[in-house]
Amino acid sequence: xxxxxxxxxxxxxxxxxxxxxxxxxxxxxxxxxxxxxxxxxxxxxxxxxxxxxxxxxxxxxxxxxxxxxxxxxxxxxxxxxxxxxxxxxxxxxxxxxxxxxxxxxxxxxxxxxxxxxxxxxxxxxxxxxxxxxxxxxxxxxxxxx
Length: 145
Hints:
globular; mainly alpha
């Protein structure tokens, strides 16, 4: 479980650190300026804690946990950038892409998990996806008004 803890702690720390923009390239500065935060810091922290607690219940070995953490990080990072200011995705395309990325997480996770772990994982990811989609829908409804 060290890997999941490390990933979660790392993500939290990185989300709170302010990077000195003088050391960034123009492309990095533009990317940072285009970042849109779907969740508030408190919501994001609560989601991380919820996810972490659910992953603990999977009882993964250290090796599987490392692989699983890599898969989760890879796809959640992609999800986090879907609604950036410079993205060309419509609301419907973002929703479709979230479904697609969750399916990829499930597909990549299946070979490394036992049947029980995989079933629990799918349940966790379904609930995670619903939280993201609910928040995205709320944000979209506020932007339409």
